[in-house]
């Protein structure tokens, strides 16, 4: 039984980057042997075990064979006879198909170190084209390492085009797509993720509403959002802005989390109104800010203003007036009205009137 460190931990160490997660592969062992040594099995689909002391995950070396559609359409074979090279061969990119033994010796059967040095994202084997999820993964790695000069190898991009044209991307679940999209949007160069999806035809399959509108201006906005370390809802809202009515269907189809959906829809519906905040009457301001739910979710207004500023390419004209009005609304205290005997609908009406007066007094 031999244990090897594999994948991202090896890759990032060679790149001089921090290593956070470590994956281990066990060669020459069976599931029964692992359990006899105290390793605890996890999951039903893969031969993966938790170390009895550290809790790290250790996977038995395995091979895979395509037997259905999508990224889940594979059968796996794990046995003591599977070699390390066979296990590494099923991985997506050469830079992820390297291993280290217990002495730190590099095992690199597919020239991943060479591709690291040449800054190339290259597939390991033709079987790459059997897994549609790899289209999203490669695009995400391109976004992660673009600042280091990495690009997708032309033959790999061609396989990604074939996958996109095959219809296999449609077999990916909404949850799996969103997981990859959301992770990619939080990389250092998220615009590269969309660029790669566009280049291989995957964007038209996954977000067809966006594909005709993707271009340098949207890419620059997304790049600035990343440079400013904006959170995911801001990046998602900026990506979809200007699509109009398709924003909601896109969010629903991909099962986007509520806060990302809310901000994208608010930006689409109210950006123009918010730009005129300085000229809005108190009632219009209160109504607008109630759409943002500023009393319960004040951070939503700040996220909206961050996205609006990115799209404006400079200071957002309505920002200070909106913040001023929001502070006035938030400062209204219900307790004096309750003490006066207001309750139920009458209390709600009185609070609304008080907020209108408070916002009007800030002019």
TrEMBL record:
Domain tRNA nucleotidyltransferase/poly(A) polymerase RNA and SrmB- binding: 149-211
Amino acids binding ATP: 8, 11, 91, 137, 140
One MF term in the entry's GO annotations: hydrolase activity
Annotated Poly A polymerase head domain residues: 4-122
Cross-referenced InterPro entries: CCA_bact, NT_sf, PolA_pol_head_dom, PolyA_RNA-bd, tRNA_CCA-adding_enzyme
Family indicated by similarity: Belongs to the tRNA nucleotidyltransferase/poly(A) polymerase family. Bacterial CCA-adding enzyme type 2 subfamily.
Gene3D superfamilies named in the record: Beta Polymerase, domain 2, cca-adding enzyme, domain 2
Residues engaged in binding Mg(2+): 21, 23
Protein name: CCA-adding enzyme
Its biological purpose: Catalyzes the addition and repair of the essential 3'-terminal CCA sequence in tRNAs without using a nucleic acid template. Adds these three nucleotides in the order of C, C, and A to the tRNA nucleotide-73, using CTP and ATP as substrates and producing inorganic pyrophosphate. tRNA 3'-terminal CCA addition is required both for tRNA processing and repair. Also involved in tRNA surveillance by mediating tandem CCA addition to generate a CCACCA at the 3' terminus of unstable tRNAs. While stable tRNAs receive only 3'-terminal CCA, unstable tRNAs are marked with CCACCA and rapidly degraded.
Enzyme's top EC category: transferase
The EC number(s) this enzyme carries: 2.7.7.72
Additional notes on this entry: A single active site specifically recognizes both ATP and CTP and is responsible for their addition.
Positions of CTP binding: 8, 11, 91, 137, 140
Pfam families referenced in this protein's UniProt entry, alphabetically: PolyA_pol, PolyA_pol_RNAbd
